[in-house]
Each structure stands twice: as structure tokens, then as C-alpha cells.
């Protein structure tokens, strides 16, 4: 009975959550709008659509930073915040502790990043996150923000897993092949990862695509084929 009631109330709940996130993002945009003083026709559009709360926040930050010609600086500052979260257990606990009063959270964030001499856009953005109780999602928001900045610059990150590092010549050939597939105007950024478990070959990942050319996968395919009954 409770499950039935929950299912019947889901559309209303989702609508309310969406409205809450929309209002929060509107607050971000209003808070950052004062940092942008450019004609409307010169404004840069979001290079790709992101969905969900973190996507909305990342998009709002991107628009503010891009139209203020501060993308590189804001990207660096947001990266510093993520680095601090990963390096400092105390800071990580602080931003994720929902019991910290909002006023305390906002005051601390404002003072910390003002002292770090962050740009006004980044400071205002982090203050809004703190005020809305969304600071705990800053790592995911940062990831999605970087997705936007890379798309804006025409960059594509490609993760290549191999047993041994690719020689420079092979990496160059791989980039050229991927550029033929993705477009000549794209900049291919290769991140190599050593993975002994694939046994050989390589696995290429970019975006939502995975090209598995590993020996491990081929061995599994062969095993599956050999286990099939013979057609006599």
C-alpha cells in the first residue's frame, strides 16, 4: 500500500524537485549576472545540454564565466576547490556535513575563498552552493563544468587502457584515427592507463563509447563460441 502511494505521488515529487532546482539555478544566474557586462548578442551558449541538478549548476557557472571571458580562471579555481576536498579530510567533512548551520557554512566559504583571492564569479557561485546546501556536490558539478569547457574548446578526452604504455608513434596514430572519426576540428586528449587485467590489446573509452579490443574480451568471446553445441 505504501509503495503504491509512493508511486502515485512520484510525478508530483519530481515536479517539486525540478522546481526547487530551477529556482536554485536561477539564484545562481542572478548572483553571477552582475559579473557579466556584455551585450546579449555576444553571449556564449552552453556547448551541450546537461541534465539534472549538477548539470544545471554547471551550465549556469559556464555561462557566467564564458560571458565574462573568465573560463580558464574559473576552471582553475574550481579545480583547486576539488583538490582541497580530496586533500583535506576536515574540509571534505565540513562541506558534506548537513548539520552545519547555513549561516556558518556560507560565512566560512566566503572567508576561505576571499582569502584565496578567487574571482568574484567563483566566490559567488560557491556561496550560492553553500547557501542552497549543494556544496557537497561540488566535485560532480566541477566534473560537469569541465565537460562543458572541454566541449567549448573542441577537446575530447580519450582514456586508453593497455598492458604497457603506448609508444609515442602509436599514440599519435591513435589520435589521428580518432580525429578522422570525431572531426578534424577536435583536439584529442589521450589519458593512458596501465591495466594488466586486459591481458593485451587495448580498451578505448570516450564519452559514452567503449571500444574493447582487449585479449581478455576476445578470449571470453572465443570461450563462449567453443561452448556452443556443434550443429551435426
Automatic annotation (TrEMBL):
**GO biological process: what's one of them?**
proton motive force-driven mitochondrial ATP synthesis
Superkingdom of this entry's organism? Answer: Eukaryota
Which subcellular locations apply to this protein?
Membrane
Matching InterPro entries, A to Z? ATP_synth_OSCP/delta_N_sf, ATPase_OSCP/d_CS, ATPase_OSCP/dsu
Under the heading SUPFAM superfamilies, the entry gives:
N-terminal domain of the delta subunit of the F1F0-ATP synthase
Which coarse location class applies to the principal site listed for this UniProt protein? membrane
Q: Which key words are in the record?
A: ATP synthesis, Hydrogen ion transport, Ion transport, Membrane, Transport
Q: Which GO terms describe its molecular function?
A: proton-transporting ATP synthase activity, rotational mechanism
HAMAP family in the cross-refs = ATP_synth_delta_bact
**Which NCBIfam families does the record cross-reference, listed alphabetically?**
ATP_synt_delta
Designated name of the protein: ATP synthase subunit O, mitochondrial
**Species this chain originates from:** Hordeum vulgare subsp. vulgare
Gene encoding it? LOC123402581
Amino acid at each position: 500500500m505504501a509503495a503504491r502511494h509512493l508511486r502515485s505521488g512520484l510525478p508530483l515529487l519530481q515536479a517539486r524537485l525540478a522546481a526547487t532546482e530551477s529556482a536554485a539555478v536561477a539564484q545562481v544566474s542572478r548572483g553571477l549576472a552582475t559579473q557579466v557586462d556584455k551585450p546579449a548578442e555576444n553571449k556564449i551558449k552552453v556547448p551541450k545540454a546537461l541534465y539534472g541538478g549538477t548539470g544545471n549548476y554547471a551550465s549556469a557557472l559556464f555561462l557566467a564565466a564564458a560571458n565574462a571571458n573568465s573560463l580558464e580562471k574559473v576552471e582553475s579555481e574550481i579545480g583547486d576547490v576539488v583538490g582541497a576536498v580530496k586533500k583535506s579530510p576536515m574540509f571534505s567533512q565540513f562541506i558534506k556535513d548537513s548539520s552545519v548551520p547555513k549561516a556558518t557554512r556560507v560565512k566560512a566559504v566566503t572567508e576561505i575563498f576571499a582569502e584565496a583571492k578567487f574571482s568574484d564569479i567563483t566566490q559567488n557561485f560557491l556561496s550560492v552552493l553553500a547557501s542552497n546546501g549543494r556544496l557537497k556536490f561540488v566535485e560532480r558539478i566541477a566534473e560537469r563544468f569541465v565537460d562543458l569547457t572541454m566541449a567549448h574548446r573542441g577537446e575530447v578526452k580519450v582514456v586508453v587502457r593497455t598492458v604497457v604504455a603506448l609508444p609515442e608513434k602509436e599514440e599519435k596514430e591513435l589520435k589521428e584515427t580518432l580525429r578522422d572519426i570525431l572531426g578534424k576540428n577536435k583536439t584529442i586528449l589521450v589519458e593512458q592507463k596501465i591495466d594488466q587485467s586486459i591481458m593485451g590489446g587495448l580498451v578505448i573509452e570516450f564519452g559514452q563509447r567503449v571500444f574493447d579490443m582487449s585479449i581478455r574480451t576476445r578470449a571470453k568471446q572465443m570461450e563462449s563460441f567453443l561452448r556452443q553445441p556443434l550443429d551435426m
